[in-house]
Write a structure and sequence with these properties.
By secondary structure, this protein is mainly α. It has a single domain, classed as Up-down Bundle (Growth Hormone, Chain: A). 74% of the residues lie in helices and 5% in strands. The chain is built from 11 helices and 4 strands, in the order ααααααααββααββα. The strands form 2 sheets. A two-stranded antiparallel ribbon has the order 1-2. It has a two-stranded antiparallel sheet with strand order 3-4. A hairpin with a 3-residue loop joins strand 1 and strand 2. Helix 4 packs parallel to helix 6.
């Protein structure tokens, strides 16, 4: 059934509200891809300072993040289908930001491994929450641009990881840095902490997003999930 322009105005939030939400979700997507990619800048100093092998570094860059991002992706997406999406997105941003900063405090392989697991698990929320929210913020004729802005965060985040991370490392130099309450850290650890901490600014912003009504084909819909047994059978 086609929805008229007048019905769209009644069903969907105002363009201003929708675009503010899109901008915040774009920031979340950008930070997600910054935190997942920035470790690739520091492979050589991480191997040198933590005394880990090529196999171990490959597990940190790939498996620790990717496997657990996929593992948590399905249950988190199911939670998003029935829960408050802005809250779930904010929790995910906070979780991966703390985990990314903890990576900067790691002193051995396993500490860094579990930090990367936390980054992967937390980031499992950003894409399903963002797509679900934007579908209810924007009518179909304006949804493509909003989705494009949101997914642009993937490439902006990947680029910023290299540019911002490289500039911070160049500014600090390859040396020991003394931080209050923490003590002496390698410069790459300080960069991981600083970049990870940025998410703690975006998580509260995400809570400012107004949760839109769920819509299905231009009609108001209830939040909810199919029974898990039905999902497994399918």
């Amino acid at each position: 059934m086609r929805v008229s322009s007048e019905d769209e105005k009644l069903l969907y939030p105002s363009p201003k509200v929708a675009w503010i939400a899109c901008a915040i979700l774009f920031l979340g997507c950008t930070l997600a891809f910054m935190d997942r990619a920035i470790i690739s800048l520091f492979i050589i100093p991480i191997q040198r300072d933590l005394q880990i092998s090529d196999t171990q570094i490959s597990l940190l860059v790939g498996f620790a993040f990717g496997a657990f991002n996929a593992l948590f992706g399905l249950p988190v997406a199911r939670w998003i289908d029935g829960g408050r999406r802005r809250t779930i997105a904010a929790i995910g941003i906070a979780v991966w930001s703390v985990a990314a900063s903890c990576c900067g405090l790691a002193t051995n392989f396993w500490q860094l491994f579990f930090g990367r697991v936390g980054v992967g698990a937390g980031e499992a929320s950003v894409t399903p929450a963002g797509v679900s929210l934007l579908a209810d913020f924007f009518p179909p004729k304006r949804r493509g641009v909003a989705m494009g802005v949101f997914y642009a965060g993937i490439f902006v985040g990947g680029g910023c990881a290299l540019i911002l991370g490289g500039l911070l490392l160049q500014s600090l130099g390859d040396r020991q840095v003394v931080l209050p309450l923490v003590g002496s850290l390698h410069s790459w650890q300080v960069v991981l902490i600083l970049v990870g901490a940025l998410g703690l600014l975006v998580a509260p912003l995400t809570m400012m997003i107004r949760e839109p009504e769920r819509l299905d084909g231009g009609q108001r819909a209830r939040a909810g999930n199919f029974p898990l047994a039905t999902v497994v059978q399918y």
